[in-house]
Every structure is written in C-alpha cells, then in structure tokens.
Task: structure prediction
Amino acid sequence: MSKLELQKCILGSVSTNCYFAKNTETGEILILDPGDAPERIYAKISAMGGSPAAILLTHGHYDHILAVSDVREKYGIQVYACQAEQELLENPSANLTRYTGKPVTLKADVLLSDGQVFEAAGFSIKLFHTPGHTKGSCCYYIEEEGVLFSGDTLFCGSVGRTDFPGGSTSEIVRSLHRLLDTLPEETDIFPGHEQSTTIGYEKRYNPFV
Result:
C-alpha cells in the first residue's frame, strides 16, 4: 500500500515543477527542486500538514534552485544533489542565476554518486546520474512507490535542452535509454516541467528513443 502523498507547485518564470513528496506514515516531506517563490513553498507545506525532511535537487539551473537557501534555512534541512553537479551549483554563470539578477552560489550538504541508495523521509531512494542537460543532472527513483523524479532529463515525449554549458545531446540520449532499459514500464515519471508520463509511454512514443 502506498505511503506517498504527492503534490506540486508550478513556480518561476519558466513554469518549473516543484514536488512535495509526503510520507503519510511519518508526516515527513521531501521538497524537490524549490525553484522560486519560497512563500508559496511554505504555504504548500503548511497546507499539507507535514514536516520538511530534505531538499532534493535534480540539477542546478536557476529555475530549480532560487528558493533553496531560504527553504533550507527556514526548516533547518539538508540539500541533496549529485556530486557531479557541485561545480555548477557553485558557479552563478554556469547555473544561470547571474542572468536573473540574483546570482546564487550554492553548496549541497549531501553529495550522491550514481546508483547510490539513501534514506530520506522514510523512503528508500536511488539516484541515477543522468548527464546531458547538465553534467550532474540526476533522477530520483522510489522503487516501492513506482515513481521517478526526472528533472530536466526526461519529459513527456521529449528530453531536456542540451545547449547550455555542460550539455550534451549524445549523453542525454544515453541517459534516456538507461532509464527506459532499467525501470519497469508502469513507473510514473514526474519531470521538471509540464505533465507526468510513464516509462511505458516513453518507450513507445518518445522520438529520442
């Protein structure tokens, strides 16, 4: 039986999905990609009636990190990211925050490696390092719930842009194939933008396969 309550806010100038994954047994909440508007994030958490446990970053671009420092400080929680993304997080030009007028230098508290399984909010979570959109882009897989948070690696019927610093079309296609070859078809995918999808749908209809 599922213990996951999943909600989202759409935040910022490019409509980024910020997800809130609540463990209904413990009341703990994971915040994925708090991209902007911290007050809206606080309001969502209050409405869900839970206790924030951690921030998970799929990558370090501005539209996924602008509210990280405020949210981390308010709740006293740690920020998780792929270790390959730390250099981008610390560079306002590379993470594109310099061009928003609000340059951000960010250091994750917990750096994860490819395939690493960790516990957060009572969930067992596996990190997939999926380079292509950025060098340290990653996806978070909660096997027991059958969900994947894919960031800007995999969208419904598409993949993320590769024309930013550190991007690579060949790498993102390899990352896509790895996800589709590894995960069950019924896995629900929650991307960084637009609507959700499934592994099975992407196997059949994603033009990058």
Observations:
- The longest helix spans residues 169-182.
